[in-house]
Design a protein that fits this description.
about 260 residues; alpha/beta; Rossmann fold; 6-stranded mixed β-sheet; 4-stranded antiparallel β-sheet; 9 helices; about 25% strand
Length: about 260
Amino acid sequence: MPIVYKPEYTMAALLKLDNVSKTFGDREVLHGVSLEVAPKEVVFLVGPSGSGKSTLLRFCNLLEHPSSGAVLFEGADILKQKNVNALRQSVGMVFQSFNLYPHMTALWNVAIALRLVQRKSAREAREIAHHFLAEVGLAHRGSAYPAELSGGQQQRVAIARALALKPKLMLFDEPTSALDPELVGSVLDVIRKMRHEGMTMLIVSHEMQFAREAADKVVFLDQGRVVEAGAPAALFGNPQQQRTIEFLSRFSLAGSHG
């Protein structure tokens, strides 16, 4: 049984952000950003803190609304979406802070949305939850509470919870930033597995080496604008913009090959 549902698409872009901007008070944090994510494509958003990456990500499942521009999912403008729960079943999201229910076991953290949103029976919800915990390597921790799990394990429970709803697109907002370095690898391994299974993903990350390895496309944002975008080999190996070179130099990636 595969890790995720893999529907067939006929359109070129599953997700399209068209000239989106965002203003908080008199401060514009995003300036006319456009990008597309094709089915089964893995796109990384990278850039310094405060560049608007997480805000852009939050547009994609209506946790935030742009001040102007359009967000299209499967060709439909989600800003006109009346059923936000339906959208969030199709567009899953994993946060940096896990957001697990502390009073529920790992199994029920995964199963609860299946019960409340999809109206599955308790038995079916448990079976599906167990399957997806197994897919992220946690079949043996279903009865554990979040406080009994490491940060890496909690994040994998959060990924299993999102996957259990069989989304067509997964959003990741700095999924490893709250983890101790030795725990990062287990979460990245799950994302690699999802990529192998064909999940479409839009990922905000500071893990530059992982972006270089796993991305189909990398988008570099700075001060609310797209500075440069392209295949990881081109963006990391031969960046065209001085600001990109300056940013990547912090990671010893700009101009490097191999």
